[in-house]
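The material for today's practical consists of a large collection of protein records. There is nothing in a record beyond a sequence line and a structure line. As an example, a complete record with its sequence and its structure tokens follows:
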Amino acid sequence: MTFFTRQERIVILLCGGILTAGSLLIMACRVLPEVERVLYVLDLHAFLPKIELNTVTAEELETAAGIGPTIAQRVVKYRRLIGGFKRVDQLKEVYGISDQMFENLRPRLYIRKASQ
């Protein structure tokens, strides 16, 4: 059996705690949109999961981004209509996406570049 030094045990416990806290934070954001708003106010949105605009489903937009079902469906429908997003700011073209909503979401949005 391998024994860890005191410092190694502390590092292992800290890593486990960080992973647990991150998982709980993500789950809380899915269940309670208010938690996500608090993270934005505290400027902690970097800890929230990123959203790839060309693969995200309407359900994922609802849970991960806190967008209502109607607007989430519009995003997916618009993406299909234009053949996929080329730029993140194209999301503003979706009816119902306000400037404030876009600015809140912008740090989490990205578009995966096509491999050549």
